[in-house]
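=== How it folds ===
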Amino acid sequence: VQLVESGGGSVQAGGSLKLSCLASTAIRSWCEMSWHRQAPGKERELVSRIGVDGQTNYADSVKGRFTFSRDRDKRMWYLQMNSLKTEDTAVYYCAACGRYWGQGTQVTVSS
């Protein structure tokens, strides 16, 4: 499975971006889908995930600002990011099944 992210870019604080992740094949129903990020000098962290039970979870730092959604065919999923903060600056990665990763897309939020 190959994953390709898109939608990153530069935005001012308070702005919005929508990231997309396209999978080369439909993701099996027993696999979770997720978004992660890694800021310079920091470890990669989980931003949001949709588990096999369909439940969506968010990191406390993005709750109420980010929304994870996906297409019904489970080949594409999204991360709508609103009210962006400078601390959201990072490379964002999508992942599937805990082992397939995209190449990452840069998000830069300036003050």
Summary: DSSP finds no helices and eleven strands in the chain. The CA atoms of residues 12 and 110 lie 5 Å apart. The two ends are 37 Å apart (CA to CA). The longest strand covers residues 17-23.
